[in-house]
From TrEMBL:
Residues 575-599 are annotated as: Disordered. This is DEDD exonuclease domain-containing protein. CDD domains: DEDDh, GIY-YIG_UvrC_Cho. The keyword Metal-binding does not apply. It comes from the Bacteria. It comes from Actinoplanes flavus. GO terms for molecular function: exonuclease activity. Gene3D superfamilies: GIY-YIG endonuclease, Ribonuclease H-like superfamily/Ribonuclease H. Residues 587-599 have a biased composition (Basic and acidic residues). Keywords: Exonuclease, Hydrolase, Nuclease. The keyword tRNA-binding does not apply. Residues 232-310 form the GIY-YIG domain.
Length: 599
């Protein structure tokens, strides 16, 4: 029989079943502890090697029970272990094997917090034994008295954190002697002494004790009171400075639990530690459901630009790629979208990304790249691009406005609102040509342009499909059996509500619509909200458990729109990030092309 693999964990992995602290943890006085000690043959845990188990169950200072037994390890006992513990092979020979002892021990541990001195060692042997003999490990919460002592006691008080030293310091009634039950009894006295000390550190619950044993900074411990009194509901939280300025804005399905996590050892970000030092209070904004919380977070970050938020701070700093409305149109990077008859693509998060997408367009269609305002009457000297055949030279009237519109401008206009196939085909053909000539670095540059262009096209067409609708009312079940209801107008969250469980959601839905925000649309794919807000709404609407209740029109995308190139975009991005060093796009990636393309 093959033994299951076992890897010993660190103390952090033993703290709880899910790696988190229960916000409703009992006070230490009401918590049942099983204080355990093992004697072993030494070495690493492999499912065997346990020679003795001692455990004491206590609560509120009262001993509730004891568990003690010798264990036959099924192997020879090293002489130094006999010298250290006084346990001999003759004592172990009639003892039961560990697989016989485990059921009773696991039952003794049920519902209690496991306490041990240097807990990873003892827990490691027990977990390995359970894995070897097919018993599920119950994942109890674990407290390590050695770790607690390192945090609660100074070097002036105790020279080390050995069990014998701590037992002497706390005047234990039993001195440890390397026998399991006596060592467990000594650990009980050490635990009680440490619990008395923890009160001066404002540690009163099991959750506090678990976190205290971990590496929490003084600033986190000092500011932990900021999480007091916060609600366990979805919403937004704001850390505020002494002058009431927002320092950081975040969102969570459970505000109280999320804010408490900032004061645990799991929070290691330097900028957040700096923020906690400056914060004086935390403000909670309760929301109907998580989507409203996400949207409110985006709006608050945009409104206040908190210094410790890195993302979504300046949504107005987007740019657009504009095809100008003139006789010989050209591409221009602009900061505002207006209703001027021009064709726009975007929004882009930076000018560099917009220029990269524009370069992809130039690879596909012969749009002029100069900034001159051309006249239909007089000629302008041509640039080098005309001599290289990269521009049809409208400046010298080598092409009529009608031909220029058909060959250069129309493919771009069609790509933004309909089928980008001709543009994509032309870029892929250029990549093929460069690859065939072994000009791979140039082909990679063109590939990056294709990625930037396709991302923008897919994003804009998805946004436009949603934002052109005057209203969408949608709902999804929440965890309590009620309904999360959202009223969306032109891609903006206009109202949010949650209907109670076991009640028909229609009254709540009707009330939400009547009180919803009036939304007047503007131009472009994000006419009434930021693109990021509309995309968060799209992600919520596209969840399989979301139901569309009512819509003001058809929610549709172009039949041969940019979305059909999603697989192509994914493959190109994988190749660009070196996830696939030999990417070739097959017919499954291109719904309109059976050729393979090297990316």
């Amino acid at each position: 029989m093959t033994q299951p693999a076992y890897v010993q964990g660190t103390l952090d992995t033993l703290l709880s079943a899910d790696g988190s602290v229960d916000p409703a943890a009992l006070s230490l006085a009401d918590t049942t502890f099983v204080v355990l000690d093992l004697e072993t043959t030494g070495g690493a845990p492999d499912g065997a090697g346990i020679t003795e188990i001692g455990a004491v169950k206590v609560r509120a200072g009262e001993r509730l029970g004891e568990f003690a037994t010798l264990v036959n390890p099924g192997a020879a006992l090293p002489p130094f272990i006999t010298v250290l513990t006084g346990i001999t092979e003759a004592m172990l020979r009639p003892a039961p094997p560990i697989e016989t002892v485990l059921p009773s021990l696991l039952e003794f541990l049920r519902g209690a917090v496991l306490v041990a001195h240097n807990a990873p060692y003892d827990v490691g042997f027990l977990k390995a034994a359970c894995a070897r003999h097919g018993y599920p490990w119950p994942n109890p919460r674990v407290l390590d008295t050695a770790a607690l002592a390192r945090r609660a006691l100074t070097r002036d008080e105790v020279p080390n954190r050995k069990l014998g030293t701590l037992a002497h310091f706390f005047r234990s009634t039993v001195q440890p002697n390397h026998r399991a039950l006596d060592d467990a009894k000594a650990t009980v006295d050490v635990l009680h002494g440490l619990i008395e000390r923890l009160g001066s550190f404002q540690v009163h619950t099991l959750g506090d004790a678990v976190e205290f044993a971990r590496a929490v900074t003084p600033a986190q411990r000092r500011q932990r009171h900021l999480a007091d009194g916060l609600p366990h509901v979805p919403g937004v939280y704001l850390f505020r400075a002494a002058d009431d300025r927002p320092l950081y804005v975040g969102t969570s399905k459970d505000i109280a639990t999320r804010v408490r996590s900032y004061f645990t050892a799991g929070e290691k970000r330097a900028r957040i530690s700096e923020m906690l030092t400056a914060a004086v209070r935390v403000e909670a904004v309760e929301c109907a459901h998580p989507l409203e919380a996400e949207v409110r977070e985006l709006r608050l970050i945009a409104a206040h630009a908190p210094p410790y938020n890195r993302r979504s701070k300046f949504p107005e700093r987007v740019v657009w790629l504009k095809l100008t409305a003139e006789a010989f149109p050209r591409l221009s990077v602009v900061r505002k979208l207006t209703e001027d008859g021009a064709t726009y693509l975007g929004p882009f998060s930076s000018r560099r990304t917009a220029e990269l997408a524009a370069a992809g367009v130039y690879d596909a269609v012969p749009l002029r790249q100069c900034n001159h305002k051309l006249s239909l009457r007089s000629r302008t000297p041509a640039c080098a691009l005309a001599e290289l055949g990269r521009c049809p030279a409208p400046c010298e009237h080598e092409i009529t406005p009608e031909e220029y519109e058909t060959r250069a401008a129309l493919p771009f206009r069609t790509a933004t609102s309909g089928d980008p196939g001709p543009v994509v085909d032309a870029i892929l053909a250029r990549i093929d040509t460069l690859a065939d000539r072994q000009r791979y670095e140039e082909a990679a540059v063109v590939r990056s342009r294709l990625i930037a262009l396709l991302r923008a096209l897919v994003r804009m067409q998805r946004l436009e499909a949603l934002t052109r609708l005057e209203e969408i009312v949608a709902a999804r079940r929440d965890d309590r059996g009620g309904w999360e209801i959202s009223v969306i107008r032109h891609g903006r969250l206009a109202a949010a509500a949650t209907s109670p469980p076991r009640e028909h959601p229609r009254p709540t839905l009707d009330a939400a619509r009547l009180t919803a925000e009036t939304v007047l649309p503007g131009p472009g794919p994000a006419p009434a909200a930021t693109a990021e807000e509309s995309e968060r709404i799209l992600a919520w609407l596209e969840r399989p458990d979301t139901r569309l209740v009512e819509t003001s029109g058809d929610w549709v995308s172009p039949v041969r729109g940019a979305a059909r190139f999603t697989a192509l975009l994914t493959r190109a991005e994988a190749a660009a990030s070196h996830q696939d060093s030999s990417v070739r796009l097959s017919v499954s990636d291109r719904s309109d092309d059976a050729r393979s393309h090297r990316l």
